[in-house]
Structures are given as structure tokens and as C-alpha cells.
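Appendix B. One record, verbatim.
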Amino acid sequence: GKGQIFVRGEVIKTVPEAKIVETLIEEAMRIAAEQGIDVDDDHGPGTTQSGSPIVTVS
């Protein structure tokens, strides 16, 4: 299957099902960087020691 990634109500990408989570995280990081949010140095809530986000799918 395929999945679509939406930003502000617009489809920005259509990706294979196996790449949905990876692509969503990449887009979230890109948007955060555009908004001036530092995502590399902060090991705050929702990140691992390496700074990678923690993703839970239920």
C-alpha cells in the first residue's frame, strides 16, 4: 500500500507504506527546523539519548 503525507491540508508526498513513519519524522524535523526549533541538541521529552524521536504506534 501507499500513504500520503499532508502538511496544512495539502498532500506533499505519496510514499510506500513501509516508509510512512520514516517520511513523517523527516517532514516533522524539516518543519521544526523551518520554524527555528532546535531539534539536534535537545534531549528533552520524546527523544532518546541520541536525540532520535520516540515514535509509538497503537
